Amino acid sequence: MTRVHLYLILLITFFISGCASNKNKQPKPESGPVIQAPISVGSILTKLEILEYASYNLPENQIRAKVLEVIGYGANTEILRTDTILTLSFNNSGTLSSLSNIEEGEVIEALISKSMQGLNASGSTSVWRIVELKN
Question: Which of 6, 70, 84, 120 has its CA 20 to 30 A from that of 49?
Fold first, then answer.
């Protein structure tokens, strides 16, 4: 056998073994878009700019914020316009500790909900509250 035949046989052998090894590899799953959990009834996922926090004008468990963007609505939720100024309350200590590092002018992403609280001359007073901070 000549050297050309030997090289040709080696080349074909490497080619066949290379093709055979690719059959055993599983294709990588394609990463699709991240599916966001549904927003609960009566809630809004929004980006807020902190206007006032821990000031003498507000109680310790409240912030004043401007709506920069509404990311999504839960079912049966009223429409909230951007640039709306809200006073938001929060109840749990986890939200308080998360907000302790936030400064005025900072942007946060939060799940907020409107709750009815007390009565006034028109019938009721509505209060927005932070349900969960997302960042």
Answer: 120
DSSP class per residue in 81-120: -TT-EEEEE--SHHHHHHHTT--TT-EEEEEEEEEEES--
Total domains in the fold of the chain: 1
20 DSSP 8-state letter: H
Residue 4 in any domain: the answer is no
Stretch 89-108: mean pLDDT: 74
Closest by alpha carbon to 108, among 62, 65, 57? 65
Has residue 53 been placed in a domain?
A: yes
The residue type at 74: G
The label of the residue with tokens 């001359």 reads: 121
Amino acid at 3: R
